[in-house]
Amino acid sequence: MKRTVVVMGALLLSASAVMAQQEIAVQQDNLMRGLARNLYGVISKTVKGDTPYDQASVDAAIVQLEEGVGKIATTFATNPKEDVKDATYGSSQKIWQNKADFDSKIPPVVKAIADVKGKIKDVASLKVAYDTINDRCNGCHETYRVKLK
Ligand code: HEC
After folding, report:
1. Which atom, in ligand 1's list, is nearest to the CA of 95?
2. Structural domain includes residue 1
3. What is the CATH number for 50?
């Protein structure tokens, strides 16, 4: 009886640990998807002419990018040791072998956003902003993001 309780307890514990890990991976993925909604969903589509230029949406996207990027270091503090189920992209384990280098990829994005904030007035200036910001996002992705499928 006692043995069963101990075994059950251990099973429950490991089940909740697995769930927590998946939750962490999902949080990290959600943060990235949020950045993508602003950079690709709003900004890139406007640059391409798929969406008409709207100053308020552009300004809001920049603010949300700024907020999101500010959360990367803490959101990736813990290694979930697993990928989000069915995800296209995953995290490289290198992140947690060299978290300081991973974190060092964030300030360039922050700076790129700060440099263009308040200066975007039309599609031409938005395109410059898009190219610089996207370049910095990729500065991290090329080392730390893994294509899963
Ligand atoms: C410091 C590193 C870092 C920076 C900076 C960064 N990312 Fe990521 N990104 C990652 C990692 C790691 C992954 C893979 C894990 C994941 O999806 O959560 C990822 C995944 C993604 C994905 C794929 C999500 C999916 O699963 O479909 C998108 C889209 C994305 N990032 C967009 C952006 C955009 C846009 C920016 C810039 C505004 C950005 N990222 C900046 C590290 C970074």
Report:
1. 12
2. no
3. 1.20.120.10
